[in-house]
Design a protein that fits this description.
Chain A is of the alpha/beta class and 281 residues long. Chain A has ten helices and ten strands. Chain A is globular and about 65 Å long. The chains are: A alpha/beta (281), B alpha/beta (599). Chain A: Belongs to the ABC transporter superfamily.
Amino acid sequence: MNHLLHIDGLRLRYPGVGFRRRMPEVLKGVSLHIEAGETLGLVGESGSGKTTVGRAVLGLARATGGTITFDGQDITHLPAGRRRGDAREIQVVFQDPYTSLTPALQVRGILTEPLIAQGIARADAERRVSSLLDRVGLPKDSADRFAREFSGGQRQRIAIARALALEPRLIVCDEPVSALDLTTQSRVLDLLIELQRNTGVAYLFITHDLAVVRHISHRVAVMYQGEIVETGPAATVTTHPQNDYTKRLLLAAPTADPEAQAERRAARQALLRRTRTPATT
Amino acid sequence: MSQQLGALGPDQTAVAPTRRKWRVTRALLRNPMAVGSVVTLAVMTLLCLLAPLITGHDSMYSSVDHVNAPIGTEGWLLGGDAQGRDMWSRLLASISVSLTAALIGTGVAVIIGVVFGLVAGYVGRTIDSIASWVFDLVLALPSLLMLIVLLPVTRGSYQLTMMLLGIMLSPGVYRLVRNMVIGIRRELYIDAAKVAGLSTWRILTRHVFFVVRGPIVIQAAFIATICINVQAGLAFLGVGANTPSFGSMISLAFTNLYGEPIQLVWPTLGLVALTGALILFANAYRDALAGTTTAARRRSRRALADVVKRADEAAPTTEKPTEKALLTVRDLRIAYPRSDGSLNEVVHEVSLTVDSGEIVGLVGESGSGKTQTAFAMLGLLPHEAVVSAKELSLGGRPLLGLTPTELRELRGPDLAYIPQEPMSNLDPSFTVGSQLVEPLRRTMPRAQAKQRVLELLARVGIPDPPRTFHSYPHQISGGMAQRVLIAGAVATQPKVLIADEPTTALDVTVQAEILDLLRELQHELRMGVLLVTHNFGVVADLCDRVVVMRDGRDVETGEVRQIFHHPAHEYTRSLIDSILDEETVRTDAPASRAKEGVR
């Protein structure tokens, strides 16, 4: 039971607008765990609640039931002040590199800010900037430029460097490569894997892209309508799925090979006929 | 810790946004309006500070010998007023009072407005409701009347009056700040700052305030003019203590209008110069923030007109209809005018063809010009775009240089379009059905058109067509919306369908269904389809031929199998190689275990 992160029966309902208005439950009892140094791929379509799981782990969304345990400590309802102290342990890389970096600061400021907030002396924080930039493969002179001067892939590298600054043990990656071009995407994924090998950080990797999940995950959990429908080693889940929804999801993703894709299309249509799922869009 | 943060704060803000600050400052220095207004304000301030040295008398000193003394009297630079006081000295004192009034009023309004605006906007909920209610109440009070009614409280002191005015004017600042903060509260970088462990105070002062400070400066300049005018107005009415002021000077000069009309000129000039400088500065600052000046805008408009004229002259003579392909593009170029009038070409000599019954994929990374190319065929490029081509024709008819009417006749029966974002392409204020019926009304009566739309909705796989027909766009899902748009696109049985990333915004399961639908419809209607996409899976699923674009050029064109299995161009190869392999699953053990093994 010594998981790095352990989520047990997590329920979440966003507060409604106005008096007494109940919103539908977004998470209906989600349970999962992540070991130290491991990548758990969390796959699902829009509205499945996968991003909400990440936000709950980060303390950005308030759970209405269940527990989140990090390194043996219950962090489900940690007050904001206490959370700040623990912040260095759990960090985040968001999907959109264009809105996740503040326009107010140069890269140097973006990278030192979390360190200074944790009480590290300014000079020490400054000294770490160049090694952080080096680790994510950005030139040293990037420190004196603003985020808006960089391309999408470079911005995502800055975001990764910011997450690494506090030497966290878990990074929540919320669709970190979805907004990137194909070539940039694979380079950023390789960077994430390399960093994991070097630092032993664990990833909660949230994505809708099965190819990406296969590439980076040790284990995969599939979410559908606020519940985990299947979980297991990446190889098993992505090649021999048990759950019907997982099967449909896998067959729906087009493969980049005309012949193989024709086969997959036929298989998907056969599955749809068999399970008689109405065309729900 | 917070103390430490406080100590570090100003130092960092001084270092960090230098470049941006310099950009704005440079833009201001280039703008004569800004320089002029700042110089005016600076000179006026300087005169006030030097007043004891450059005036001969106190502003309240009255000399019976100098009643209505003419300009240039020894020691009375601008002469004396009706009560024998030094006009020059009173003018400087009035400027000083006006500036003080502006500082106090604006300071109070901005401090109250910004503090409550930041907190209410950021925290929201109850605090927001209460603060907004209170500020609305203040806004509803008649401020001038309140100032007069509260005279017994202020005892006529203009400083206290201006403080009250500042409170009355604070709702404007509050509303501005609050609304902007609500706009950026959900930004990811705010979330990232929270996760990084920054305190709320720090997030507000560094990240949130940065965005709102520009508009606050502009608003503050306007508030300053209001303060100056209200102070002068009250003094003109004779309300408040007997301090020298533009208002009281004008009032006194009024009584003397027929005798010494020149006395009216000095205070009026002072008032106009002061408020005018403030307003012009606000305008210049707004332009500097936006990165444009009125003059620059005018310049670029002129340059554009030239460019368009030149392009029109250079436009190719439309060639004879050719019978080769349904849609033919030869050497298409698209350029945009730069601000200095030169042309920036973004698409260079792109050629492609689409035959009927064929699906052609137009592939490339972001910025490769694929959407620009597609939009050029549809005539949807912004009108400053300069488009030229050796040939751009549909079924032998040239598409370039068409009038809007001709283009409209072509779109629909011949050329249809499916956009990337289905939701933003449906008008939220009309039902789905009415939006689909409208284009058909050109060719058939309403009842028949409705019948046809219901058939189409059923055809594109919508489970309950009548219900969807009467729904508004927000009541249907993204996948449904895309089906609706497809129904609309094929309603007129077009010859060519241009689809711009039709499934990018959709989930994979929905994407698969939409791709199936497109394939079926294409087969049924024998359409030529140009599919713009960056997804090679979609290309493999649907396309017969592929055109690969990079940096505005078509680098390779070929059959889909050839592109995937034997790409000729190096760039295509690198693209295909960077597709994440389907077979390889990550096999290395989690890092911690591997590490333990090493140690």
